[in-house]
Specification:
Blueprint: E1 2-5, H1 7-15, H2 18-33, H3 36-41, E2 48-54, E3 61-66, E4 72-78, E5 82-89
Parallel strand pairs: 1-5
Antiparallel strand pairs: 2-3, 3-4, 4-5
C-alpha cells in the first residue's frame, strides 16, 4: 500500500513523546506491507470508518487507525490504493471530534 503523509500528521509525530514516535514508525512499516483487504481486517490497527466525518479540503471519508492504546491517526483512502495520514491525536477521545 502506498502512504501519503500530510504535514499536520508529520508535525504531530515529531512533537510527540518517544513511545508515540516509535509506534508511529512501526505503524508506517506495517502499512507498507499490507494491501487494502488486510488493512480492514488487521486486529492491531483497528482501522475503522469515522461516520459523518470527512476531510475538510477533499471531502473524502475519514478513518481511524490505532497507533498506541491512547493515540490515533486520522486518515483517508484514495485510489491506488493509497492511505493518506491526515493527523495524529495522542488523546484517543479528541481524535473523534469534528
Amino acid at each position: 500500500m502506498r502512504i501519503e503523509i500530510r504535514p499536520p500528521f508529520d508535525e504531530a509525530v515529531m512533537s510527540a513523546e518517544l513511545p508515540v514516535r516509535k509506534a508511529a514508525a512501526k505503524m508506517l512499516l506495517l502499512l507498507q506491507q499490507l494491501d487494502l483487504p488486510q488493512l480492514w481486517t488487521h486486529p492491531g490497527l483497528n482501522f475503522e470508518k469515522l461516520h459523518g466525518m470527512v476531510e475538510p479540503v477533499t471531502g473524502q471519508q475519514l478513518y481511524s487507525l490505532r497507533v498506541t492504546q491512547g493515540a490515533r491517526a486520522i486518515s483517508c483512502l484514495v485510489q491506488g490504493p493509497t492511505i493518506v495520514l491526515v493527523s495524529l491525536h495522542t488523546q484517543h477521545d479528541k481524535a473523534y471530534r469534528k
